[in-house]
Specification:
The structure is a single chain. By secondary structure, this protein is α/β, with parallel strands linked by helices. The chain has two domains: about 5-160, 3-Layer(aba) Sandwich (Rossmann fold), CATH 3.40.50.150; about 190-240, no CATH class. The chain is built from ten helices and five strands. It has helices spanning about 5-15, 15-25, 35-40, 65-70, 85-95, 110-115, 140-150, 170-180, 190-225, 225-235; strands spanning about 55-60, 75-80, 100-105, 125-130, 150-160. The chain has a five-stranded parallel β-sheet, with helices on both faces. Helix 2 packs parallel to helix 5 (about 85-95) and helix 9 (about 190-225) packs antiparallel against helix 10 (about 225-235). It is globular, with a radius of gyration of 20 Å.
Length: about 250
Amino acid sequence: MRIDDGVAAGALVAGSPDRFGYEWERYSEIRPEYEEQFRRWTVHLEPEDWRGLRFIDVGCGMGRNSLWPMRYGAAGGLAIDVDARSLAAARRNLAEFPQLTVRELSAYDIAAVEEDAQQDAALGGFDIAFSIGVIHHLEFPEAAVRAMAKAVKPGGRVLIWVYGRENNGWIVRLLDPLRKALFSRLPIALVHHLALYPALLVSPLGICARSYSTRCCRKSRITGGVRRRSRCCVRLGCRRFGRPGSTRCPGR
């Protein structure tokens, strides 16, 4: 499916890049837990698998998901987004890696990378194309996935992480209609404040639960075998932090 310029412009707006730009302009700090999250989202790859690879990060936001492959030894590549504030944050966070280009480009226009390859040595011929938490926001996700597949070398890989329906059914049934009917129509600054204060109240509970589950997993590594470790992780809901029933605690 080819998207003409008029449709593409509307499709970009539908993906809410302005709202993500608002977020990344205000919350652009790289936090230590972001690496653990990245490892969960790219569970099929170990850090050493990134060494020497060239990648394209589709919908890079403030650059957090391009940072870890570069620190793992990736050769470089391209991080793309369409919001100026997101791109500014990404350039700051990725400034230590001159071999990684941060560029304004939509997921629908990745084919332009191939056209520019001969003029810009930093573009084209990727070993892996990945997109984390982006594709499901797009108006035409199929077109974006096809563009990613075309951007990789023969034998290259495409990795996509999207929101799962599993354990989120109540959000889909209750909160998503409210988001569409109300919050998506409110000014983003107002929505920010409406979300901020409840989050401040709830976040200590999440930190405590995460700390408890981590201690349990660590203890089970020391005291017991596979069955004890697996039971611990499932019972404490470590599915949020690792694979269901995993005998390997995240980040270990």
